[in-house]
Amino acid sequence: MTSLVQSVDWVAVAPVLVTALTGLAVLVTDLFLAPRHKPLLGWVTIAGLALAALCLIPLTDGDRATFCLTTGDRQCSYVADHFALAVQLLVVGGALLTALLSVTTVRREALPAGEYWFLLLSSAAGAALLPASRDLATLIVALEVASLPAFALVGLRRGDRGSAEAALKFFLSSVVATAVSLLGVSFVYAATGSLHLDTVAGGLDDVDPRLNALAALGVVLTLVGFAFKLAAVPFHFWVPDSYVGAPLPVAAYLSVVGKSAGFSGLALVTVVAFRPYADTWGPALAVLAALTMTTGNVAALRQRPDQPASAVRLLAWSSVGQAGYLLVPLAAAGYHDDPEEMVGATVAYALMYAVVNLGAFAVVALVAENRPGHRLTDHRALFSRNPLAALTMGFFLLCLAGLPPGVIGLFAKVAVFRTAVDSGLGWLAVVMAVNVTIALYYYLKWTALLFATPTTATPTTTPAARATATTAPAAPTPGTATPGAPGQATAPTATGSTVAGSTATAAREPSVPASVPHPLTAAIALAAALGVALSGAPQLILRLASGTLF
Amino acid sequence: MNPVNYLYLSALLFTIGAAGVLVRRNAIIVFMCVELMLNACNLAFVTFSRIHGNLDGQIIAFFTMVVAAAEVVVGLAIILMIFRVRHSASVDDANLMKL
Amino acid sequence: MGATHHVAADYFDGYSVVGLVAVVGVLFVAVAFGAGQLLRPTAPTPEKLLTYECGVDPVGEDWAHTQIRYYVYAFLYVIFAIDAIYLFPWATVFAADGFGGTTLVEMFVFIGFLAVGLLYAWKKGVLEWT
């Protein structure tokens, strides 16, 4: 009797496994660790994530698969192809940068260390499993493994009402989306009799005509759960509140790794499994993309810079807008003869977005070291306080906007744009172009705010002269030049009522504050180095946009 | 019994759950309705599995059950935390009134 | 086939009386309340809309907190009870030919992961009744 025990390719699953096991190790170690050694756990997490990233190296051929059926057409449930590897790199790298950001947050906000790192690693393990899974059951389980720890992370600040309510809102809406998604999966299963993505694609090719409506409904409902994770409109309403309520690194994590779980799941179910129903999900995704980017950008435009947490809110809405761009190639795949060619543009864009968005969150965290309000106005004249931070933040914002010197942002946007044009989605390309222009406004406004000088060479103290003096440096963008703009009215330390006052401010905040924690600096430096490297050699990720990843 | 009847029951349960999620405002009841939706999906899966004569549907039903259980624990913990925070907030208000 | 149908039909006939009583019961309540609704005058005042509590003015709100000390046990129970479902399919095959010791060990690895959860709960002091 031959053994029926299936052999597992442990090397193929190593990136996911290492992440999950590190999480478990951290949780158990935490139980036996004296409180003063707790900061070690953060470094164990970072080491584990780095190890998981290294585990991707032996897989670069992209030809490994495991958990395969031993009968029939030998479908595999776990495939480490180039798509899976690229997204896993994004997830593990994103979690690594988040971990660097979190080291100080965990200490300062007295979050429970063992639980925090365990939840972060568990969620990252789920998000890393998602792009490699090739059956609907594994996809749903991976989606839940990525989401459930995220709810707890959002609500981890004990006794904080905002945190708890953000977690509840996030949780309830996400769970409903999952339930709807599961109903969709059950319909697809009813129509095809299988859960493996390739078999589903085969089954959907010749569906019993009487089941046609059921299959189409199943296809659309299945997309809901993933669209929710991607924060596509109309499943986006949880985003601003959750980001503001959560600790800042968790918001950064959700905006990058959470989104990656959403778009990789969407890419897999649409392009691989539901290909025969492209005429159903193609238009649906196109409308979703247009709505998402427009809503996100218009809402970002309406943020008032002097409100508490306005910087986080702006990044939250801008991440909704960016999710719209991520959807464009997926929608284009529905109209193109060779849908697998399109997905690469999404992955390339997501990699670019992950680096610069985490970088932007890191600088927001850095500014919050001195001014904890997370206000946009706190960033005013950052250049005079911390030139390096201001320059990197400017770079990240320009990448997000897609302007030189953020070359990589521009190229990634062009790659996305091209997929829409190539597949005849002219209207979506136009909507995207309009949205990129809208987004320029608030990104540039923020950039200008960084370089606005708090004090001018002319030592005047009359209010009128002060108004002109403070607004003059911000002249390139119309928004900051409005004298009555609330940002200037309510930022007395930044504008400085007298020259003496502002020099005092400058003296209190040395250009590079000694208190800046090293992990935070490391995160910013890493993100900036990656962004600059990608801008110098965009082909590193744009390679993904040409040719198929599967 | 005709398996289609189970599908009717599943559709009914899912509808009740979805209506509850949309109409009710109490977090715990919304949450119970979500569980109803998940279990309706489970019933559908098992029925389709029976109709197709393969086990895939039963396997995903197993995973759905565990997902639902994990959701229960995380969700109830969050809801408990909210009750606790609100409770302490109201106690603070009462103290302020006394002063 | 036909005989079983007959038996089933007889069986369900036995319940027709129960069904009839249930229908009459529902009708009785519906007619009584419906008639009352139609006949009575309605003039609501705030006092009338209060919850009736033995004639005394109601105190507090309808939501009352009860102390449930054992909710963490309930959580633990839910997790462990549900995870036990994976034991059933395993139990049907692990003794069969071709599975052998590896399958046995695999299940203990799985249970080991669950035990880590229990260890966590124990070290956090959740299992102590205070």
From TrEMBL, chain A:
It is found in: Cell membrane; Endomembrane system; Membrane. Keywords: Cell membrane, Membrane, NAD, Quinone, Translocase, Transmembrane, Transmembrane helix, Transport. One of its GO terms (cellular component) is plasma membrane. It catalyses: a quinone + NADH + 5 H(+)(in) = a quinol + NAD(+) + 4 H(+)(out). Residues 460-507 have a biased composition (Low complexity). It is a multi-pass membrane protein. Pfam families: Proton_antipo_M. Its EC number is 7.1.1.-. Residues 133-436 form the NADH:quinone oxidoreductase/Mrp antiporter transmembrane domain. Coiled coil: none annotated. One of its GO terms (molecular function) is quinone binding. Residues 460-512 are annotated as: Disordered. GO terms for biological process: ATP synthesis coupled electron transport. The chain crosses the membrane at residues 12-33, 40-59, 79-101, 113-130, 136-156, 168-191, 211-238, 250-274, 280-302, 314-335, 347-368, 388-412, 424-444. NDH-1 shuttles electrons from NADH, via FMN and iron-sulfur (Fe-S) centers, to quinones in the respiratory chain. The immediate electron acceptor for the enzyme in this species is believed to be a menaquinone. Couples the redox reaction to proton translocation (for every two electrons transferred, four hydrogen ions are translocated across the cytoplasmic membrane), and thus conserves the redox energy in a proton gradient. NDH-1 is composed of 14 different subunits. Subunits NuoA, H, J, K, L, M, N constitute the membrane sector of the complex. Belongs to the complex I subunit 2 family. This is NADH-quinone oxidoreductase subunit N. It comes from Wenjunlia vitaminophila (Streptomyces vitaminophilus).
TrEMBL record, chain B:
It comes from Wenjunlia vitaminophila. It is found in: Cell membrane; Membrane. Keywords: Cell membrane, Membrane, NAD, Oxidoreductase, Quinone, Translocase, Transmembrane, Transmembrane helix, Transport, Ubiquinone. This is NADH-quinone oxidoreductase subunit K. GO terms for biological process: ATP synthesis coupled electron transport. It holds the Pfam family Oxidored_q2. Belongs to the complex I subunit 4L family. GO terms for cellular component: NADH dehydrogenase complex; plasma membrane. The gene is nuoK. The chain crosses the membrane at residues 6-23, 28-48, 60-83. Its EC number is 7.1.1.-. InterPro entries: NADH_UbQ_OxRdtase_chain4L/K, NUOK/Mnh_C1-like. It is an enzyme of class 7 (translocase). NDH-1 shuttles electrons from NADH, via FMN and iron-sulfur (Fe-S) centers, to quinones in the respiratory chain. The immediate electron acceptor for the enzyme in this species is believed to be a menaquinone. Couples the redox reaction to proton translocation (for every two electrons transferred, four hydrogen ions are translocated across the cytoplasmic membrane), and thus conserves the redox energy in a proton gradient. The keyword S-adenosyl-L-methionine does not apply. NDH-1 is composed of 14 different subunits. Subunits NuoA, H, J, K, L, M, N constitute the membrane sector of the complex. It is a multi-pass membrane protein. It catalyses: a quinone + NADH + 5 H(+)(in) = a quinol + NAD(+) + 4 H(+)(out). GO terms for molecular function: NADH dehydrogenase (quinone) (non-electrogenic) activity; quinone binding. The keyword Cytoplasm does not apply.
